[in-house]
Amino acid sequence: MVKAGNSKDTTNTALVKWREYFTDPTLISLIDTALHNNQELNITLYEINVAQAEVRARKGMYLPNVSVGAGAGAEKVGRYTRFGAVDQTTDIEPGKRIPEVLPDYQIGLNASWEVDIWKKLRNAKQAAVYKYLASIEGKNFMVTNLVAEIASNYFELLALDNQLDILKKNIDIQNNALKIVKMEKQSAKVTELAVRRFEAQVYYTQSLQFDIQQKIIEKENRINFLVGRYPTPIKRNAESFINIIPDTIYKGVPPQLLQNRADIKRAENDLAAAKLNVKVAKANFYPTLRLTGGIGYEAFNPKFIISSPESMMFSLAGTLVTPLINRNEIKAIYIGANAKQIQAVYNYERTILNAYIEVVNQLAKIDNLGKSYDLKFLQVQALNESVTISNGLFTSARADYMEVLLTQRDALESKMELIETKKEQINAMVYFYRALGGGWR
Q1: Can you give the residue ranges of every domain in the chain?
Q2: DSSP string, 397-415
Q3: What angle do CA 410, 413, 414 make, to 5 degrees?
Q4: How far is Cα 64 from Cα 290, in angstroms, rounded to an integer?
């Protein structure tokens, strides 16, 4: 049963947690394992750490840069220079001249700070915050897709199991029919041609088994890859597949997509970051004010280095600079930031449009597949009865072997198509849940 809801219906299936939306214990266990072991998801988690580190780096650029240091050295100046001539005529103490090789020891604090007049650093920090939030939404979007992909592959695996079971049952039916044809040939009611045609049909059906078995192996290994483990048989109950009844679903109101779809929220954060990056690039055209200063002690002898105020030194300066020669480089950066902002706008619009289309498509698919399944179920019932009738007519010589063969083939195809339709119907429920933005909570 499907309830599409209307513009006033605020109930939304996306708000249901995946553990409640999917009830199969095996499927729940697989999803839970994948959320811990999936390599691609783990890579994304470390991308969040990278974005978080970028926020800390941007915040650090906004704060003053303070360092402490100590140093030692020696200097000898030429005698016939201004400093050398002064040294030769200056006494440290009465009768004691400045040494020709003069040591130098110093210790102190140095600081520099770019005054954020144009909010360039603050905007850069906030842009990094939006990028960090976008990376989190990217992780949520990946979780949504991972949950949906595992569920889809799991239900496809159950469908293959049911198709394989149908094939085996049909092989038994066809073998029984082959025995009857051989008996009919012995009594001269049919020719060798009928026997060969029945044999060919049995061989054809048997060959289909191996194709499905290969698909089962590949589907199991796809799930194992998503779960993050090496090939392992997946224990499952295939008998419950055909009895799965889709639950009532609610699409809610359109604005809820903006709240639930992680890819929309990621695009929104990317757009906000792009806008701030334009402001940062624009601020590069303006003058930069930087304050620098230092305080400490300096002396030519370690025993004088803490003498105060004689050995104390300090400096304070402010510089205001504006770009001149490299304005072309700054202009190119600004143009590039503008282009990225426009890209972010289009990406945001595209993401929203894609989300709405996905919801509408899956909702229509659920409705149409439900009607198609009901009709195919009636078709299977009718063809099952036809198989029984054709076998009876053939035994009583009232139908030829071609009618029996065609009826059996049609019955087999209809059963396989019924399972395929059931699989598509369940997958439509899975993808509708994903389209609404469910699964990451």
Answers
A1: 13-67+116-288+325-435
A2: TSS-HHHHHHHHHHHHHHH
A3: 85
A4: 10
Give the E-state strand segments of 322-387 in sequence order. none
Nearest to 354 by CA among 249, 250, 264: 264
* Residue pointed to by tokens 């998503």: 226
Amino acid at the residue 36: H
Two structure tokens written together for 26: 């095996």
Chain segment 34-73, per-residue pLDDT in tens: 999 999 999 988 999 999 999 999 888 878 888 898 888 8
- Token readout for 396 is 């009583």
The helix/strand/coil state of 419 is helix
Task: List, in order, residues 6 or more apart from 219 with CB less than 8 Å away.
Answer: 153, 156, 157, 160
* Cis previous bond, 309, omega within 30: yes
Helix (H) or strand (E) holding 294: strand 288-299
DSSP state string for 106-148: EEEEEEEEEE-TTSHHHHHHHHHHHHHHHHHHHHHHHHHHHHH
Tell me, what's the pLDDT at 97?
67
* Phi, psi of 254, deg, nearest 5: -55, -40
What ranges in 187-261 are assigned the alpha helix state H? 192-227, 256-260
Max avg pLDDT among 13-17, 75-79, 432-436: 432-436
Domain 13-67+116-288+325-435, CATH number (from 2.30.30.210, 3.20.20.70, 3.40.50.10860, 1.20.1600.10): 1.20.1600.10
Is the model's pLDDT at 3 over the cut of 50?
no
Q: Nearest CA to 33 among 219, 230, 262?
A: 230
Number of CB atoms found within 10 A of residue 65's CB:
12
CA–CA separation, 247 and 372 (whole Å): 17
The whole-model pTM stands at 0.82
The overall longest dimension of the chain from CA atoms, in Å, is: 144
Predicted confidence (pLDDT) at residue 94 exceeds the cutoff of 70: no
Per DSSP bridges, beta strands 102-115 and 288-299 are antiparallel
Both tokens assigned to 128: 């990094």
